[in-house]
Task: structure prediction
Amino acid sequence: MTTSADATALWHLAPGLQATVVGFEDDLSENYRIRLMEFGFHPGEVVTCLLSPGFGAPKVYRVSNTVFSLDSEIAEKVLMDTQSMMKSVAL
Amino acid sequence: MNRVLLIGSPNSGKSSLFNRLTGLHQKVANFPGITVDVSSGALAKMPDVELLDFPGTYSLQPISAEEEVAVEYFQRALADPEVRHVLCVVDATRLEKSLYFTLQVTRESQRHGKPITILANMHDVLSANGLSFDPEGLAREVGAPVILVSAREGSGLDQVIERLRSALISDDRAGGLWADTPDALLRGTAHQLAHKYGPSGDILVRQQTRLDRFFLGTATGGVAFFAIMLLLFQSIFTWSAPVMDAVEAGVVGLGEALVPLISNTVLADFTSDALFGGIGAFLVFVPQIFVLTFIIGLLEDSGYLARAALICHRPLKIFGLTGKSFVPMLSGVACAIPAVYAARAVDSPRQRLMTYLAIPLMPCSARLPVYALLIATFIPNDTVLFGLIGWQGVAMFSIYFFGMFCALLVTGLVSRMSTLAKTELPFVLELPPYRLPSFRPIARAAVNRCRHFVTKAGKVILGVTVAVWVLGYFPNYGTDLAGSWLGTLGRFIEPVFAPIGLDWRYGVAILSSFLAREVFVGTLGTIFGIEGAEDNMLPLVDQIQASALPLGSGLALLVFFAIALQCVSTVAILARESNSWRVALTMLVSYLVAAYLAALLTFNVTQGLVVFIG
Result:
């Protein structure tokens, strides 16, 4: 079982690493939580950070076969399992 | 009439399919949210059936006002007895992304007893990359036919028509496999089905990532961005020039051939000055609008504009905007009207309002002839650095930059002072795959934009030019402009413009430009008695220089035109899109007052410096 101590925000996932979604911060509104899940950010799904463009620009993530760009405001709210964090095998 | 609904998630190729099925030329772009209205057209092979193209949306559970409107419209359409079938488009290369939405659409269609067919688009991409997809398996599980199609190549469309011919009846018995399934269960099922039946390889994502590393890299991304923007501006100002010259020459040549055939003096003057002068005033912009629309279309369709939005997000956010404001603002460089429409892609109402505020300050193409005239009049045509840099080019760049600077300044200030609730939606942008643009639909869209410009703006410009000519020609038949009706009107408003060193002639030209900015040049040409001033500015430049207009007034006019919202069409579209005449009129008045004050300041500072320098 993953505890909050084992979780880190998606925003902190370095480029080239992948990890499994474990949940969302409580203060993320229901609408956005559902929309993220519609995009594929389900608990249990593997997300890979593909790129971290410079100057604080939104980062680029792969979930399933789709690529999304998320800024820090939202990527900070997606919790990733640190124990599952590993170098992406897909890249 | 029988109707068929076409719905799908953004970037699924839905609009391309609509064009294929109807033979129409709706604008197609590879940028989320580009389909902003419900388009309709008869099916080319079933003319008695109307196809309705709905805006792309990720879910039937809306999170923004626009999505809510689109979803409500879709629900109402499903209840319409004339709606006989639903076509739901999915991107077969990325099934995971669109299958949940497809199941929601299937459920709603079943609840209303409407047959549904799933169109798995981009079959050509799957084949080209050796990816597999199991339409039969998916169809079995979903309980609806799945047809592999390629909007790009046109494959599979005959099967779609066959399906529609056989299933163009509503099932009165509402219900079905998914009719009572809650969203949460649909989400889980979609996830499983996508993994089971969708393409398993990730070759496409790998290709996309390689390109993203270049276009979004800290160094390479910045260089590519500036190179592409430079290319865009070069296309507007350099590549369009030969065609613009050809249009000019054509209009002038036609006028010179026809006018001598007219014996009546008044009619000949009218034809030469008002008709050909008026037509020339706006036709000359058509090549520029075509080139700009075409290049922006290529950038959208290639997938690059979504990357540009990402690159611009952080800097734009400082000014209360979002990366999604970039496309509307860039479009505003061509024309504010399509730019205002494009602002619908901005989810947050607050950031959308900021985008509206920025768009009229972007240096649109209608300002170009005014800038060109004033710069040619006041800035010497000298060059430095072995002829590489011309002062007039520097001046043009400066006034363009000034407009963009004003746009960011205004949004930055207003976003900090505004009491409007901070409802910014987080920035989540799907990055569509890179693809080779489809040239023909983009060229058609550019032609349509030009046609719209000629038929809508052209009427206004021609009307104003004719009105100004009549006012300036009568009652003394063009012999004494000062004694004409135009002269009388000009002197009445002269006190307003006198503080910035402008006499009645410029006042009249400014007044006429509120219908369309570029009318300023034509009106001034008419007032100075120069035929076809829009086509050949040099005689007008000479006249203005001879009239000893102060340098401060010239610069004040540049500043005034950079800020003022002189376009009734833009004001009307702003009112419609913001759903508020108050917003549009407030912008009109505020930008007018700001433009006047900035022009007053520019005039006084410049004249002070002129006196000081000596």
The domain at 2-200 of chain B is CATH 3.40.50.300 (Rossmann fold). DSSP finds 26 helices and nine strands in chain B. The CA atoms of residues 476 and 483 of chain B lie 7 Å apart. The longest strand of chain B covers residues 83-91.
